[in-house]
Amino acid sequence: AMLRPSSGHLILDGIEPYKLGASARSRFRAQHIGLVFQDFCLLPYLDVRGNVLCPTLAGNSTDPAYADELIDRLGLAARRSHKPSQLSAGEQQRVALARTLFARPSIILADEPTGNLDPENTQIVLEALHEFVDSGGCVLTATHDQHVADRADRHLLIHAGRFV
Q1: How many C-beta atoms lie closer than 10 Å to residue 35's C-beta?
Q2: If DSSP codes are grouped into helix, strand and coil, which group holds residue 156?
Q3: pLDDT digits 0-9 by tens, 122-133
Q4: Phi-psi category of 4—alpha, beta or left, where left has phi over 0 and alpha has psi -120 to 50?
Q5: Which residue has the higher pLDDT, 158 or 97?
Q6: Are 31 and 105 in contact (CB under 8 A)?
Q7: Nearest to 69 by CA among 148, 143, 131
Q8: Does residue 67 surpass a pLDDT of 90?
Q9: Mean pLDDT over residues 85-96, rounded?
Q10: φ and ψ at 49, to 5 degrees?
Q11: Average pLDDT over residues 67-89
Q12: In whole angstroms, what is the distance from residue 90 CA to residue 38 CA?
């Protein structure tokens, strides 16, 4: 809901975001769409808890205790007060995922969410995404990892910029 599609329509939770004004569309994005980037996009001056609480800056009012629950569930309790530079790639990705889950979106868009991770962290991230789906959420993942693709309910293959 950032760039207007060149054709077709986007409807999410019965709402067409491009019929909304810019600020309403921005609020819609913050409330409904979670993003997990391959390169984490953590704020370097905030600790783990501060990064997980970031969605509150966009107006998402979620109980801060839920941030602590996610930090614990994703195995980051001992790293709660550490800054991103003090974390491994796997820990940073789990913080990014906790931040996204904290906002309680309807859909998560995940770009290579396990691309920089070892098998143990890959498993933790995939399990958390599956729990999100099992609770009624939707995850759209772009991946080159067949193990990640094998966990999906549906596959869309893109070759040379086109669905095949």
Answers
A1: 16
A2: coil
A3: 899 899 999 999
A4: beta
A5: 97
A6: yes
A7: 131
A8: yes
A9: 94
A10: -60, -40
A11: 95
A12: 11
